[in-house]
Amino acid sequence: MPIVTEKNQKYVETDFSIAQLTEEELKEIRSYYFYSIEDVKPLNKSQQWVLDNKSFLSPNCCHQVLFKLKGIIDIKIIKDNLVKMAKNNPILRTAFFINNERSLQVILPERAPEIIFLDYIKMKVDNIDYFLDELLLVGQRRGFDLKKDRLLRVRVIRFAADTYAMLIVFPQLIEDNWDMKNIFNGIFQDQEGLDLIAQMPSSRQYSFTQYLENRSKEDIIKTFAYWKKILFDAKAPELPMSQNDLGLYERDSFVTELDENLTNLTTEFANTNGRLIALFETAWGLMLQKYSKENDATFGIVLSNHNDDIDNADFSNVINILPVRLRENQEDRIGYAFKRQQVHLFIAKSYSGCSQKELELLWPNCKNLFNHVLNFYDFYNSKRFTEVDFSLGVKIVAINSYDDNENDLIIYFRKIDEIIQIEFVYNKIVFSKNNIENLLINFLGVLTQMVTKPNAKISELKLIEEPEDIVDTAEEERIFKLGLAELRKKELFGNLTDKEWQTLTKNIMVKKYIKGDIILAEGELQDNIYLIYEGLVEVIRSSNDGWNRKLGDLSFGNIISYNNLFEAKESSISAKVISKKANIIIIKNEYINAVLASNFDFLKDVIKAITAQAELFQNLWLKNIE
Question: What domains does the chain contain, in order, with CATH numbers?
Answer without folding.
Answer: 2-198 (3.30.559.10), 211-394+403-460 (3.30.559.30), 473-625 (2.60.120.10)
